[in-house]
UniProtKB/TrEMBL annotation:
Record flagged with keyword Protease: no
Keywords of the record: ATP-binding, Cell membrane, Membrane, Nucleotide-binding, Transport
Protein name, as recorded: Peptide/nickel transport system ATP-binding protein
Pfam families: ABC_tran (PF00005), oligo_HPY (PF08352)
Annotated ranges, domain ABC transporter: 34-282, 310-543
UniProt-annotated location(s): Cell inner membrane
Ranges where the record places region Disordered: 1-24
Lineage: Bacteria, Pseudomonadati, Pseudomonadota, Betaproteobacteria, Burkholderiales
Topology class, membrane: Peripheral membrane protein
GO molecular function ontology, one term from the record: ATP hydrolysis activity
NCBIfam families: PRK10419.1, PRK11308.1
Membership in a protein family: Belongs to the ABC transporter superfamily.
One of the protein's GO biological processes: transmembrane transport
Keyword ATP-binding on entry: yes
Protein species of origin: Kerstersia gyiorum
Length: 581
């Protein structure tokens, strides 16, 4: 028997039993149903997806949640005939009474788009860069329309209606724009319009908000809920973040290592998760009761007042006629984690670049430990201020081994024999020293980000500027990296300027926070104070957009609390609570 078509479980569990999954008793109004799906590649003895069963009813939202590599995306790609030809797929996938695994490629193409819409994570990769939005939407309509469309004018009108429905303003005048002329959130709206072009019955949204600002994410989630209500759609929402899905899902299925380990109603699963992996995801998402300031013993990370390490006064920067930063004033103390939040385009990264000496301000002054900073920085200052970027793969030389990269940095510090120091650095960021012999491509995203942190630590900095260092990582890996940074701060006295668009992360990680809007620092102060009494309307807007709001109220007195064990940071699968003594 094929390893990808094993005998059924002898004691299958009902998918809605909250502890497992099978096809035993799906409701009569089920629209889409996966039964005992197995997916494998090549001669591997173990399938990447093993015995997955799930269903979604008409008008319902099912969230499929798990870490990167858990099998979420490949399960749905295989179920809808979009997996690579090398994939070995078995089981049954029923949609409106048809088994999709028995359809020909032509029949599947006819079905997809017309009855099943797909929204992927990265619209930039899924929209043709040199075709207008009209051309791409029109093609999606024409490919799946069995009869000739009634004229170009009617087609343009239909595309305009679709773009208007997904919230693109002045849609009629944007039909001939290219994807690059839209923001990330607007491009995702275009992808949603394309998926809805022929009014499908099922919409599969695979991490559709992962790369978006928290406010844009909230807008996309609200749009999906509104479209579902108006069109009666069934939605499968794929995500690594329980906080995001908690606001939109009727039911949740949790995947780990190619299997569904738990499923049930959103309220039931989040209030009383039974599987340890579900509890770990819950804690990593900050949804365990008391995870935000004011509700937990570790609600603030405030430390005793310390002398200012960095002082910024009157900092201004413009690009041409466009002001990017206006009169920025802030201080970062020794050993402090200062969060800088705002939407894309607010000026966060520009401010980080100015402080790092990668760009010159037009006006204003900066001092580090009382000494004036002048660009270009001398070597001692460059060593004292280091940067960890959002995408570690882009910032690491793909052709050099990890040890060689670290050795080069250490020699700049005057370390003649760097082997022992490389081992110490890798251990400091909780990596096996044997990884020094690997290339960046041979590491996971979380491991690459740890290497980037080790590279920054190699020069013994006083301040690290971390620019969106966890936004490209899944939720449990985020928790591991944040826990690592907290531990390094505790051990070395590091200061951090933590740049992010996610106030949920700031709440669990930073001592103080500054809010940037259109290049202006509209508010700053202690995290607990800002969250409890935000003074500026923009701050209140950002706070309102944090996902998982309804789960962050204190539980009833008799409600059992999740009991996720804290796993040491050395475990790559750990997602410990972000707290220190």
């Amino acid at each position: 028997m094929s390893p990808y078509n094993p005998e059924p479980e002898t004691t299958p569990m009902d998918e809605d039993s909250h502890t497992g999954a099978s096809e035993a008793s799906f409701p009569h109004d089920t629209l889409f149903e996966i039964r005992q799906l197995h997916v494998g590649f090549g001669n591997a003895s173990q399938p990447v997806v093993s015995g997955v069963s799930l269903h979604v009813r008409r008008g319902e939202t099912l969230a499929l949640v798990g870490e990167s590599g858990s099998g979420k995306s490949i399960s749905l790609l295989a179920a809808t005939g979009l997996a690579s030809r090398q994939a070995q797929v078995s089981g049954a996938v029923l949609f409106e009474g048809q088994d999709l695994l028995r359809l020909s490629d032509r029949e599947l193409r006819r079905l997809r788009g017309a009855r099943i819409g797909y929204v992927f994570q990265d619209p930039q990769s899924n929209l043709h860069p040199y075709q207008t939005v009209y051309e791409q939407l029109a093609e999606a309509i024409l490919v799946h329309t069995p009869r000739p469309y009634p004229g170009r004018r009617a087609l343009r009108q239909r595309v305009t209606e679709l773009l208007t429905e997904v919230g693109i303003r002045d849609a009629a005048h944007r039909l001939d724009d290219l994807p690059r002329q839209f923001s990330g959130g607007m491009r995702q709206r275009v992808m949603i319009a394309m998926a809805l072009a022929l009014e499908p019955a099922l919409l599969i949204a695979d991490e559709p908000t992962t790369a978006l600002d928290v406010t844009v994410q909230a807008q996309i989630l609200a749009l999906l809920k509104d479209l579902q209500r108006r069109h009666g759609l069934a939605v499968i929402f794929v995500s690594h973040d329980l906080a995001v899905v908690s606001d939109i899902a009727d039911r949740i299925a949790v995947m780990q290592e190619g299997k569904i380990v738990e499923s049930g109603s959103t309220e039931q699963l989040l209030a009383r998760p039974r599987h340890p992996y579900s509890r770990r995801l819950l804690h990593a998402a900050g949804l365990a009761h008391g995870a935000l300031p004011g509700t937990s013993a570790c609600d603030t990370l405030s430390r005793p007042a310390a002398a200012p390490l960095l002082h910024v006064q009157g900092l201004t920067r413009s690009f041409g006629e466009r002001p990017v930063l206006s009169d920025i004033n802030l201080e970062i103390a020794e050993g402090e984690i200062f969060g800088l939040v705002g939407e894309s385009g607010s000026g966060k990264t520009t401010l980080g670049r100015l402080i790092a000496g990668l760009d010159r301000p037009d006006h204003g002054t900066m001092t580090l430990q009382g000494a004036a900073l002048q660009v270009p920085y001398p070597p001692a200052t460059r060593h004292a201020i280091q940067v960890v970027f959002q995408d570690p793969y882009a910032s690491l030389n793909p052709h050099r081994r990890i040890g060689a990269m670290l050795a080069e940095i250490l020699r700049r510090r005057g370390v003649a024999q760097p082997a022992r120091e490389i081992e110490r650095l890798l251990q400091a960021v909780r990596l096996d020293p044997a990884l020094a012999q690997r290339l960046p491509v041979q590491l996971s995203g979380g491991q690459r980000q740890r290497v980037a942190i080790a590279r920054a630590l190699a020069l013994q900095p006083r301040l690290i500027i971390a620019d969106e260092p966890v936004s490209a990582l899944d939720i449990t890996t985020q928790a591991e990296i944040l826990q690592l940074l907290l531990q390094l701060r505790r051990e070395t006295g590091l200061s951090l300027l933590f740049i992010t668009h996610d106030l949920g992360v700031v709440a669990r990680f930073c001592d103080r926070v500054g809010v940037l809007q259109h290049g202006v620092l509209v508010e700053h102060g202690a995290v607990a104070s800002i969250f409890a009494q935000p003074a500026h309307a923009y701050t209140r807007q950002l706070l309102a957009a944090i996902p998982g709001q309804r789960l962050r109220t204190p539980p009833p007195a008799n409600a059992p609390l999740p009991t996720a064990a804290l796993i040491p940071i050395v475990s790559p699968s750990a997602a410990p609570a972000l707290c220190y003594a």
